[in-house]
Amino acid sequence: MASYWSGLVSSVKSYLGYDNLEVESTGNTSGVDQQEHNWKDEQRQGLWSQLSKFIGKDITSMISLPVWIFEPLSFLQIMCEPMQYAELLLKASDSPDPANRMAYLIAWITSGYSCAVRNRKPFNPLLGETFEYLSQDDKWKFIAEQVSHHPPIGVAVANGKDWELRLEMELKTNFRGNSADVVVLGTNSFQTKHGDYFTWGHLGTTAHNVIIGGMWVDHYGTLEVKNKTGERAVVNFTRTGWLGSGRFDLNGEIYDSKGNLKLKLTGKWNEIVMATKVNADGTDSQPLLVWKRAHKIANPTWGWSAATSHLNYMDEEYKAILPPNDSRLRLDRFYLEKGDVTNAGKEKIRLEEKQRTERKDREAKGEHYHAKYFQKTEEAEHGTRWTSIRDYWSDREERIKAHKESNVNQNAHIKLETAPVVDNNSSPLPEKPIEIEEEINDVEEQLENFSLQDKQ
């Protein structure tokens, strides 16, 4: 049976033309039980037996998936992962040019999809789970909460000195046999000191070759970003065609409040975003770099960058002031990161059963769950939104204060190590009309040697 399955896999891959399709690397499995951690044919047969009856259905919360398909991160941490490129948000807030602010924001949004290429699934957050993160340079902080389990909804807010980012993600899936479509609902927003209020939604996502072949992820669709001041952008993410044609391609346009085309965007959503200024006479200037993905892998086991790896950081002092429902403290996540697949699976089942019992108890009492930090509201333009109802950071200060008071050594100092500075290879758009001193035709040379500065 095993040899038949292997032959079927090879035949179907060859027939579909996926043998040579490039798949993003997700790291090796050193330090993890090889038999449990690799996507073996036997495991996929078992997964197919489990999923085959759900073709055409939303499997987001319907079944308990085997732990070997997961990576040791919660989806709330995945929501925070693009913050490794937060410098783009700072630039989107600081730039005096509204078209450039839009370009920086779109580059940051794109960077989030560049992170979402690994072929392992994050853990579904438990209801009421939270995740906090503070930047090393104190320029921003991030808090996320799982506000609903059916359907699964995560909400996050990141704050900087002069900006606020709000993210909303409600997940739905459609299992199609050898692929799974992921639909993400929710409205995201970004506010700046300039009076901007940018809003946007989400792209479509498909995980291909879930059962047969090398699994890979595609993000596609039209991203429309609007500003209440009238500027708008339309960016098309190309859906991968036959034999991988068009994979990763993006192109878009940014218009001012009067409908004039100001910037053209091109690039690869997993790699790079370039901006081209449209001159008054309709001609294009030289394309300039807005963002380039950081490729260095710090954790080869999971294919993580240093910033992604740091999402799980906690020493004993930090652990002491985290709330008990922080994503870092989940034991299934903890065991899996340590390579203990057996205990990770047991703990995952225990947490799922505990959550089901709590839901049944609420239903029996006629009670409804209410999130701690966010509340569902309705907006005329955007429909359902989640607004803040309680300050997480005030609660955090109270936890730190209580920990200090309970510490026998009154001189003990809590040192909360934060994320290392990661070079994200982004470059500033000039704040004046986008021009360059000399023509540079070779893109690689431009990316390495050209620093975008204000035209003097």
Question: Would you mind describing this structure in some detail?
Answer:
This protein is of the alpha+beta class. It has one domain. It is 28% helix and 26% strand. It contains twelve helices and 18 strands. It has helices at residues 2-16, 34-37, 41-51, 75-80, 87-94, 98-115, 306-309, 316-321, 331-337, 341-365, 392-406, 443-449, and strands at 70-74, 121-123, 130-134, 140-148, 153-160, 163-175, 179-185, 188-192, 197-200, 204-208, 216-227, 232-237, 249-255, 261-268, 272-277, 288-292, 374-379, 383-388. A six-stranded antiparallel barrel has the order 6-7-10-11-9-8. A two-stranded parallel ribbon has the order 1-2. The longest helix is centred in the C-terminal third of the chain and has 25 residues, at 341-365. The radius of gyration is 23 Å and the shape is globular. Mean pLDDT is 82; it is low at 1-38 and 410-456.
